[in-house]
Amino acid sequence: MHDIGVLASDDGRPGTRARKLSSAQILWKDTKMKKHGMSHAACSVLLLVAVVLVISFRCALRHSFIGGQSLLGAALPDNVDNEAGLVELAAIDPAAAAVLQAAEKLLEGNLSRAPVVHHDVALRGLRDWLGRQRFDPGVMSELVGLIKRPIDRYGGREADDADGPKKYASCAVVGNSGILLASEHGDLIDGHELVVRINNAPAGDARYARHVGAKTGLAFVNSNVLGRWCAAGRASCYCRAYGDAVPILTYMCSGAHFVEHAACSASSVSSSSSSSGAAPAPVIVTDPRLDALCGRIVKYYSLRRFARETGRPAEEWGRRHEEGMFHYSSGMQAVVAAAGVCDRVSVFGFGKDAAARHHYHTLQKGELDLHDYEAEYEFYRDLETRPEEIPFLRDSGFRLPPIVFYR
Fold first, then answer.
1. Which partner from 181, 214, 243, 251 sits 20 to 30 angstroms from 128, CA to CA?
2. Are 317 and 361 in contact (CB under 8 A)?
3. Rounded to whole angstroms, how far apart are CA atoms 90 and 165?
4. What is the pTM of this model?
């Protein structure tokens, strides 16, 4: 016999898969119903009602499920559901391209702005930096060698392990948000093996120690900050806010800042260390591959947020953000760098509150337009709860350590 296309539930319960009934099955049901005094017309009505109920239940169930996803923040509108498209758009970075173009011109001009005393070192650094520009998320597996090894070498802790230096057991990354003043995490911060501070924010004095701690093992400083601390044309500069023995990790915002980098590398806070012949701690430049990775991650989250909140295509993201200026924050890169060199990462002072200052140590209230802090907060939440879902990082072959944000 041929099926005649009437729908019924497989087991009589709503929500289960509907199937077609054969003519024999319908005849059997009809006969059975007639035995109970039910007419064929009444039977047809009941079957029709059943079909309508099943369909209605499915629609309600579907809308309920979608609504639940939306409340949980898991559902995305159709215009942001194309992750491949977002990943592709995130790879376009006009700001980085402009920086590299300007750096190439500086190299062609032999970095003429550099004073003689720092010229050769600055030019060598610029040339090496340009030669290593590429995208490779696998850099995460190399960060121990790129960051921790030179620090260990400076401290006389050359690894005897044939596999190279081991990671730090625990790291605290201390941001600069004013929310730090609402808690007293100072002792907790200082209890980590490595404490990373950002852009020379103050620590250890009577005003802030109980909130931000006193210990500093690594200063993360973007090169714009170096430019402010090391005036162009000077033979030396004061860039070591935490003392000569604290290494500096710096991101190059501009190729021109290799002049300031050279000056900072040669600088010393105290004259006694210079006279004793003790070299100051190294000023390490972030690997360009790490820079590119951070850039793509943050732009991906910013694109996704834009499309979700506006309902507009992600391709229109540039209407809200000035692409030529958009950039990730120093704090974001410090967190990613710490994830590469630490077995466990704790993060403090990331976030905002309407009553808090933008920075705990200044009166600034507003945020910088070139950063999308809300997008970065979404990234941080994924670092904590579902790191395996983060684009680019999940393709790096690197296993992220546990990361906790103290809010």
1. 243
2. no
3. 33
4. 0.78
